[in-house]
Amino acid sequence: MREIAKGILADDGSLATAPEGGWDWRISVASIEKAGDFTPYDGCERTLTVIAGELLELTVDDASQALEIYRPFKFPGAAATSAALPTGEILALNLITRNGKVRGNVRIVELSKKREQHLFGSQFGVLLQGKASVLRENSESALELRDTVIGGEEDSPRISGRGFMAVISLDLTDE
């Protein structure tokens, strides 16, 4: 597992560093190489997206769900969850959010050179496939596969290119 980022959301909804040992949201990429049970995350919600490989069969509380590439699937973190790999190992993008604190959403967008993808505060963009650049003010940087861009309010980064990107949005819950 490779952790991309974790933290909390401040009262204004902006990204903030988590106290040692605690977090209200976490983003990671994990290789699932063999069938087996998932670690439960009580009090959390999970969103799993297959980003490499063909198919992951998840069983969540005795209900089976086939997950294809680039189709985010949300499920309770405390649920008894196991995985089968009918077509071989996969790579998964994981978002875990703490219930009552943070609400998370994962959207897969197709990038275009004609229309830039903006990333705002409390958003992350993970390049899943293709070639892209991030533009900030007057600078441009090339993105590599699985590079992550953090959004911003004043200087919202813009992504331009061809391929697919996971856009992860975090919001405070109303509770």
What characteristic shape results from the CA principal axes?
A: globular
Task: State the low-pLDDT regions, or none.
Answer: none
- % residues in beta strands: over 45%
Helix residue percentage: under 10%
The helix/strand series, from N terminus to C terminus, equals EEEEEEEEEEEEEEEE
- Main beta sheet, described? 6 strands, antiparallel
What CATH architecture of the largest domain do you see?
A: Sandwich
| Strand adjacency order, main sheet | 2-1-3-10-5-8
User: CA-to-CA gap between the ends?
Assistant: 31 Å
How many β-strand runs?
A: 16
Provide the residue-averaged pLDDT.
Answer: 95
* CATH topology name of the largest domain: Jelly Rolls
Rg over CA atoms, rounded to whole Å, is: 16 Å
Describe the protein's architecture and organization.
This protein is an all-beta fold. The protein folds into two domains: 2-100, Jelly Rolls, CATH 2.60.120.10; 104-172, Jelly Rolls. Helices cover 0% and strands 61% of the residues. The mean pLDDT is 95.
